[in-house]
Amino acid sequence: MTSFAVALLVGELLSAWFAVGAPAAAIAALTLAGSLAWVRRPIAVAARALAAAAIGAWLAGRALEPPNGCFVPAAAAAEKLWLVAEIEDAPTVIEDGGLRMRVIARAPGREPERICGSVVLTVSDPPGELSVGEKVRVHASLRRPRNFANPRAYDYRGSLARRGVWATARASGKGLVRIGGGEAGERSLASERQRIGKLIDASLPEPHAALLRSLVVGDQESIPAAIWDRIAAAGLAHLLSVSGLHIALVWGLVFALARGLLGRSEWLLLHSHVRGLAALAALLPAILYAALSGLSVPAARSVAMTALVVASLACGREVQPLRALCLAAAAVAVAWPGAPLEASFQLSFASVLALVLASDAWARRPRASLVPGWRDLLRDHVLLAVLVPAAALAGTAPLVALHFNRVTPIGLVTNPVLVPLTGTPATVLGLAGAAASLGSERLAEQLFALAYWPLEGLRAGAFFAAELPLATLRVPTPTLCELGLVYALLALPWLPRERRRVVAALVLGALAADGAFWLRERRASGDLRARFVDVGQGDAAVLELPHGGVVVIDGGGFARSRLDIGERVLAPYLWSRKILRADVVVATHGDFDHRGGLDFVARELAPRELWVGARGDERGRLAALEREVRSHGGKVRPLVAGEELVVDGVRFECLHPPLGGVLSSNDSSLVLRIRFGAHTLLFTGDVEAGGEQAIAERSPPAPTTVLKVAHHGSATSSGDGFLRWAAPELAVISVGVGNGYGLPHPDVVTRYRRFRVPVLRTDRDGSVWVATDGDRMLVRPFERSSPPLCALAGVLC
């Protein structure tokens, strides 16, 4: 059974790369059934494993497909239409004052009018409070979720689909009309979450209310980003996710209470298994708490494992932790197909596995005496206080590096100190308040208010710890091969003693070879490489220079969105290339879709220089970015037309803007021509016809190998005269899928076709990789890359 569970999990993980259709899954099911007749034969064991993996891959792939008989918007563009939506979960207040909520929606007048699954609806300027069960009519922009087409990018579309969401919508609250529902008499878990959340808000100030809502009802979205980042940097992010710690706390408290009460009965002691009854009685409150918090994957894992432990106790059998862990993982994977691909699943089970293995090693340690003295007991308690967070940190650190590009050594200190002193009291008071609210909301508010000081201790402690030297470290994204090698090293203590040296030598040799590969890849390739990054409707590119230098040109950004392109798209790409510091950041001009993501890059990658146009009007719009760069020791270099710089053997020529004259914002864009060997790259920002004409008149013509098309393919740019002057061999347009501007303009596309210039577009081809040794040129759109090889070894990205 355990091998079947492991194979099922492996199959779901492989579904990220390989699709298994229904016929193959049916054959796998028949194979599985047939192999049961030969339970112990090796060929039957292998057949069962392959069948289980195929079934797992099919289950996970099927979760991405919307059901039949409902409407899903086209992938290419947003649709603006009227929706009638029923709110199915408590709305979350986001940082810009808007509301985000899950709704069940239909589009009257369409066929079919019901929209598949749930819709994540974001409402700006909401007209007051909205309640679970309430129905509204709103004019919204409905779109299919889309991933950014960059190597090793986060699977946003898949993550939403696995939660039953195949569409997102944005709307203004000014046109929202309430049409009923949400009666006070209707009770559901969602309405209870909202009711308890309101009581918490009435009892505590922000951000303490947001922290307690996260602990009690699982509402993490409303925690301010600055608070969340500090808590994560202090190694305490797991504390704000309802997981094993919280479920175990509830189950343990109720179990102790129930065992004490049941133990008072002599008849029960003589005629029943009191521990099993108490364990069973404690299971229901744990399940209710997990459901109240939204039943996240860590909570589901904890409930599944608790149920298996309870079943073992009830049957009077010894609990086998590893088997229980495998069965719980398989149960969650079957109940939520594709869950093993989520970071929360991986971190949750990895932490428990590490604790199980550590506890086994602790139990097998040699003891000085059979009757330990008080010194021995004190020493054991201190060692356990260090061992538990150390085991959890070691077990999850490689995965945290994979998903979040950080490790937090400070967690070794913050977890044994802040969790019992602040996290546990706050959780107990929050749960006590939630239970009390069923009878007295006044009492509930008083209990919630008492949680202020533990929460303040948590906040202050996290802020203090996060500022300590080496508290948290940014790390590059590991490949899956590197991940496996690190876990192989961590597993050495559990291998037979005679094999440890051989395995350690092999693993260390492989890590050395991997390090040598990346050292050559990053520092000694001798090539100029450019990645035109897919940032949606915006511009961003990364240049890797021949001897390891890194230049970031623009950073994308959405002005009216909470999504930080620098944090979520640009920096993860840089980290996937093992880049932890940028040498130069270039802001072509002050429009948000070019400079918005650079703030995070400047903060986390500490560039040595920031290049901007020398014009004062544009520098005013980039003042905050300039301050950020200077605060990390970098310097600002204003450039004017005619200047030339050589960085790492690559020549950068500033072609625009001139220092004098009156120019529009777009025509103030910094235009750079980059020469390496026989090839030239031209980056044009948002320069328009007037700027293009000035460049052609002022600068001698030079054939361009790759042209970054100005202004996302707008009709105001890419004039005939400029194209004759630039004579590009290839053009790249950075543009968003289904953007509301209709870009690239059809006339521009026709013009490039007339000049016989091939065009690649980030909305259709994904990000574009260009590499040259000065002689030959390689161009590879994202669609031609190999995701499995990219994830496994970092090649063919």
Provide a quick synopsis of the model:
This protein is 48% helix and 16% strand. It is built from 29 helices and 24 strands.
Describe this structure in words.
The structure is a single chain. The chain is α/β, with parallel strands linked by helices. The chain contains 29 helices and 24 strands. The chain has an 8-stranded mixed β-sheet. Helix 8 runs antiparallel to helix 10, helix 8 packs parallel to helix 11 and helix 15 runs antiparallel to helix 17. The chain is globular, with a radius of gyration of 29 Å. The chain starts with a helix and ends with a helix. The mean pLDDT is 88.
* Beta-strand residue fraction: 15-25%
Broad shape: globular
The helix fraction, in percent, is 40-55%
Individual helix count: 29
Radius of gyration: 29 Å
Instruction: Return the structural class.
Output: alpha/beta
In angstroms, what separates the terminal alpha carbons? 38 Å
Low-confidence parts, pLDDT < 50 over ≥5 residues?
Answer: none
Question: What's the total number of strands?
Answer: 24
What would the average pLDDT be, to the nearest integer? 88
Give, in spatial order, the strands making up the sheet with the most strands.
Answer: 15-14-13-12-11-10-23-24
Oligomeric state of the chains in view: single chain
Q: How would you sum up the major sheet?
A: 8 strands, mixed
